[in-house]
Amino acid sequence: METVNRKPHYRVYATALMITLLFFVLGVMMGNYVAYKKVSALDVSQRAILVLADFANLKSEALLNESPDYCNLEWSAIWEEKVAIGTILTSLEQKFGKTNKDVMEQKKLYQDVQLKTLRLIERINEKCDREWNIILFFYTNEENDKKGNAKLSESQGHILDTISKDYPDNVRIFAFDVNIADSGVDELMKSYNITSAPSLVINKKSYNRFMNKYEIQKIID
User: Fold this and answer.
1) How would you list the strands of the sheet with 171-177, edge to edge?
2) Pairing relationship of beta strands 205-207 and 199-202 according to DSSP bridges
3) Could you give all domains of the chain from N- to C-terminal order, each with its CATH number?
4) What is the mean pLDDT for each group of 10 consecutive residues in the chain (221 residues)?
5) Which of 40, 86, 154, 197 has the most CB within a 10 Å radius?
């Protein structure tokens, strides 16, 4: 039986992504405008995240398993679903709180997308002679958390936001909530011996502590 190599259809992905985000924006506007709020921002956001996660899964499977020319991919083509879901989650956190049960459920999908994107980035670094610095950020949002410190985690997140803006071309950051039940994230933490939050893994080396901007810059420079 002849094997057919199918390449991912990026135009289809892009069109579907734009339609999904349009529905998200319209849904949020409707939720804020209609007093009764039968169509809530949370409901619309959940549907948008599901669709985006499906796109990300299809694309990453195609890129990883069907031997496409992923060495020539633009960064935006790899990163777009992750950014879109992250933007929606930030909006949900601001509206409903970072530890809201429904928001935490959506984070599971986001973390799955991050793990798939991380595998792709690592492969591109290895096979395509790229030199992207990869930073894994493990954090907690829960107060009085035995797993770590929420305030330090927030401060670490702000520093990483600055790092991302200062190094847009060669730093790729992935953030994982240690309180999300996810076997993939648990396995990642075990492999790097992550025991508390905040913790960082920079280019596969673990740092089980808060790190200031200078320390991070010194490593990636």
Assistant:
1) 171-177, 133-139, 199-202, 205-207
2) antiparallel
3) 1-129 (no CATH), 131-221 (3.40.30.10)
4) 45 56 54 45 74 72 63 72 84 87 88 87 83 95 94 97 92 94 92 96 96 96 84
5) 197
